[in-house]
Amino acid sequence: MQSKKDNCFSLLIVSHSNDIKQLKVPTWIPKLLILFILCTILSISYLIYSYNYIKTDYTAKVKELNSLKEINKKQKNEIKDLKMKTEEIEKKLASISELEKTIKDMVGLKDSKNNETTRVTINASRGGSLAFRATSKDNIDTAQISSDFDNLSELLDQSKEDLAKLKNDVKERLRYLEAKPDLMPTWGRITSGFGYRKNPFGRGREFHYGIDISNKYGTSIKAAGTGVVTYAGYNGGYGKVIMINHGYGYQTVYGHNNKLLVRTGERVKKGQVIAKMGNTGKSTGPHLHFEIRYYGKPINPKNILNNFK
Questions:
Q1: Where is the M23ase beta-sheet core domain positioned along the sequence (predicted)?
Q2: Do residues 274 and 286 make contact, with C-beta atoms less than 8 angstroms apart?
Q3: Fold of 189-303
Q4: DSSP characters for 22-58?
Q5: Could you tell me which residues come within 8 angstroms of residue 103 by beta carbon, excluding any fewer than 6 positions away?
Q6: Of 9, 230, 260, 299, which residue is least crowded by CB atoms under 10 Å?
Q7: Cβ of 176: how many Cβ atoms within 10 Å?
């Protein structure tokens, strides 16, 4: 029971012996107990909510961290792959540059800053052959970069093949130019040209299949082009004569020599001294009778020789 005067609860306790005891409880105690219980429930609820929130947030962060780790790992692998591709491209560039240098050396060209072949330049960084930089707003598209590198690698392979083919073409062209009998075989005065002329040993006219170059005894006779000596010896009206097969359909004849300096089967180079001028065979004085034959047919040396006078 509650007394209004005392503002408290009165509790009557009756024992088995019918003794009655009265216990007075102030009203603020149950109120405080109820308040405590409510506060406890609210606190537990808040703790449970906070725990679940933190757990959810933690799980999300862990998941995000794992995702970032995977992305980081993937990017490291992609960058490693790009570095390998970069090194491969640099090797190809070096190979192409070497081929280019070889070709230029073959044809006697020098590097010029104004006429330099376009090259791809890749700047090296501390960590490797390729440096990637990006701001917070820019993302590196490694897939696109890898695709670009693949395309570049294919272009470099094609360029290398083209240069290799060019090298072979240049080498073949240089062989041809070395073999082509366009070098004046000696110096002196041209006393008789190619074509019909008055017969120096009789009446009438005759066809002259070469040119005659007159000079003093012992004047050096040079090979007009690189080739193989097919004949070196005495041959009737030619006297002491040398015949050279230059390939590409060209043959040359050097007649009336005083002394032969090469033998049959010997390979000679353009400009090499092969004989000394003389007056052997059917000749009216010391001179060189020089013929150029193309696939067996005599042609006018004037149309082939450089600096023909």
A1: 207-301
A2: no
A3: Glucose Permease (Domain IIA) (2.70.70)
A4: EEEEETHHHHHHHHHHHHHHHHHHHHHHHHHHHHHHH
A5: 163, 166, 167, 170
A6: 230
A7: 15
For the segment 188-233, what is each residue's pLDDT rounded down to a tens digit? Answer: 999 999 999 888 777 788 899 999 999 999 999 999 999 999 999 9
> How many Cβ atoms sit within 10 Å of the Cβ of residue 22?
9
For 15, residues 6+ apart whose C-beta sits below 8 A from its C-beta are 21
- Given a contact cutoff of 8 angstroms between Cβ atoms, the answer to whether 235 and 280 are in contact is no
Indicate the pTM of the whole model.
0.59
- Contact, 26 vs 7, CB < 8 A? yes
Supply the DSSP string of the chain, one letter for each residue. -EETTTTEEEEEEE-TT--EEEEEEETHHHHHHHHHHHHHHHHHHHHHHHHHHHHHHHHHHHHHHHHHHHHHHHHHHHHHHHHHHHHHHHHHHHHHHHHHHHHHHHHT----SSSPPP------BTTBS------TT----HHHHHHHHHHHHHHHHHHHHHHHHHHHHHHHHHHHHHHS--S--S-SEEEE-SEEEE-TTSSSEEEE-SEEEE--TT-EEE-SSSEEEEEEEE-GGG-EEEEEEEETTEEEEEEEEEEE---TT-EE-TT-EEEEEB--SS-SSSEEEEEEEETTEEE-GGGT-TT--
Find the length of the chain: 309
Mean pLDDT check: name the lowest of 86-90, 119-123, 277-281, 286-290: 119-123
Here the tokens at position 164 are 């290799």
Query: To the nearest whole percent, how much of the chain has pLDDT over 70?
Result: 83
The pLDDT of residue 139 is 56
